[in-house]
Design goal:
single chain, mainly beta, 11 strands, 0% helix
Length: 126
C-alpha cells in the first residue's frame, strides 16, 4: 500500500482545511488509517484514526487536543481517508502524516502502522 497525503496549506486561525490520504491497493478497506503530526522541534504525535471496514460502519478516535474540531472519515470506493480540520489554532501548525496498519490493537502508537505517506504542511497564522 502506498499513501499520498495532500491538502495542507496556510490558513488563518479559526479557519479550516481538509486533508486527504489517497491509497493505492485493492485492500485499502482492510487498513486502519491514522493521522499524525509533527511540529518543529517536537515529536510526532497521534491526531486521529479510523478503523478498517468493508461496510459503512467505522469507529474513530481522536487526540484530546483536536476532539470536537477535527473529523476523520473514509471513502473506500475512492481509497481515500479525509481529515476535516475546523477551528484551526496556531498550535495545529505541523507537518501532517497519514499511516496505514492492519487491525492494530492500539491505534495511537506510531509503531502500530506499517505504511506511511509523505507529510503535508499545515500552517495556521494567528
Amino acid at each position: 500500500v502506498q499513501l499520498q497525503a495532500s491538502g495542507g496549506g496556510l490558513v488563518q486561525a479559526g479557519g479550516y482545511l481538509r486533508l486527504s490520504c489517497a491509497a493505492s491497493g485493492r485492500t485499502f478497506s482492510r487498513y486502519t488509517v491514522g493521522w499524525f503530526r509533527q511540529a518543529p522541534g517536537k515529536e510526532r504525535e497521534f491526531v486521529a484514526a479510523i478503523s478498517w471496514s468493508t461496510t459503512s460502519i467505522n469507529w474513530s478516535t481522536y487526540a484530546d487536543s483536536v476532539k470536537g474540531r477535527f473529523t476523520i472519515s473514509r471513502d473506500n470506493a475512492k481509497n481515500t481517508v479525509y481529515l476535516q480540520m475546523n477551528s484551526l489554532k496556531p498550535e495545529d501548525t505541523a507537518v501532517y502524516y497519514c499511516a496505514g496498519g492492519v487491525a492494530p490493537t492500539d491505534v495511537r502508537p506510531q509503531t502500530s502502522y506499517t505504511y506511511w505517506g509523505q507529510g503535508t504542511q499545515v500552517t495556521v497564522s494567528s
